[in-house]
């Protein structure tokens, strides 16, 4: 016999209401708190004052991020399932913890995730396992985010993530087909500690959506640009181009100096010719004056003799 629909809806409403209260308590305890009771709006704009601590946290690892808006996420049902998963993990004696991690995606996918969640089943790139990838470094998350969508409006989803037991993966080809972590691990972690991969739907909850514009400068100026083997080749090519351009500039500069020197020499020669011409003209004038004076003296002598 199927359960009564009204009773099921009532339980669901109570569950959602309880989760909403817990979610509000969580935000009140958070360093990035936002006053007000969680309501039916799934997204609430954070004020400038409330955004500052979150912006500072993101810019510790992603200083050039051009943040233009931050939303707080109110998804009580999703948060309720997260709390149930958290309690389930705490039933075992192994230590579990909550950590703040980042997941970067397009704006459209971020909005879609508020309904369907971050779905590990849609993973196409799986260097460290076929799950949802997070990072503790926002720059890393941006740099290695999926470049296939042409949408440059990006979102950093700030998530609280449950981590209990981890399994380290190196990112070798065999790790790409890893569907679940080995043994009793619930999380795979890259050997450099930058990537966390989760495989269960409610092991994480999106707290904030941070909107920014992805630009080529954010990629080219990333601290991870040099560490990418493909980009090392690009950099070597750029270095070779820069050296070639520098050599061309040096040749052009030497040519310019020669031309300037030749021009100065021509100008000096022209000035010398002009000075000689002036000197000859003055000498000619003095010679004429002497001749006139001689003629005048000669005329006076003739007049005296008469």
UniProtKB/TrEMBL annotation:
Source species: Schizaphis graminum
InterPro entries in the record: ARTD-AVP, Poly(ADP-ribose)pol_cat_dom
Annotated keywords: Coiled coil
Record protein name field: PARP catalytic domain-containing protein
Domain of life: Eukaryota
Residues forming coiled coils: 244-279
Pfam family, one: PARP
Domain PARP catalytic: 64-177
GO MF annotation terms: NAD+ poly-ADP-ribosyltransferase activity; NAD+-protein mono-ADP-ribosyltransferase activity
SUPFAM superfamilies named in the record: ADP-ribosylation (SSF56399)
Record-level GO cellular component terms: nucleus
């Amino acid at each position: 016999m199927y359960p009564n629909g009204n009773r099921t809806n009532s339980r669901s409403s109570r569950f959602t209401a309880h989760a909403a209260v817990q979610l509000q308590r969580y935000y009140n305890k958070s360093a990035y708190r936002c006053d007000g009771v969680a309501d039916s709006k799934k997204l609430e704009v954070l004020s400038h004052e409330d955004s500052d601590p979150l912006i500072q946290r993101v810019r510790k690892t992603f200083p050039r991020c051009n943040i233009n808006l931050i939303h707080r996420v109110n998804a009580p049902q999703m948060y309720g399932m997260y709390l149930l998963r958290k309690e389930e993990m705490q039933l075992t004696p192994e230590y579990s913890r909550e950590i703040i991690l980042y997941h970067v995606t397009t704006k459209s996918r971020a909005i879609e995730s508020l309904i369907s969640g971050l779905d590990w089943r849609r993973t196409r790139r799986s260097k460290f396992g076929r799950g949802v990838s997070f990072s503790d470094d926002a720059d890393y998350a941006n740099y290695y985010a999926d470049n296939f969508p042409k949408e440059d409006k990006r979102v950093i989803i700030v998530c609280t993530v449950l981590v209990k037991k981890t399994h380290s993966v190196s990112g070798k080809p065999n790790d790409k087909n890893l569907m679940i972590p080995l043994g009793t691990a619930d999380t795979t972690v890259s050997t450099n500690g930058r990537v966390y991969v989760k495989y269960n739907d409610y092991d994480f909850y999106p707290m904030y959506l941070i909107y920014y514009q992805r630009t080529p400068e954010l990629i080219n100026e990333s601290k991870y640009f040099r560490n990418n083997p493909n980009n090392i080749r690009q950099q070597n090519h750029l270095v070779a181009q820069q050296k070639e351009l520098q050599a061309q500039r040096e040749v052009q500069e030497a040519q310019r100096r020669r031309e300037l020197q030749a021009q100065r020499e021509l100008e000096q020669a022209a000035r010398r010719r002009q000075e000689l011409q002036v000197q000859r003209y003055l000498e000619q004038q003095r010679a004429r004056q002497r001749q006139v004076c001689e003629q005048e003296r000669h005329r006076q002598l003739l007049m005296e003799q008469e």
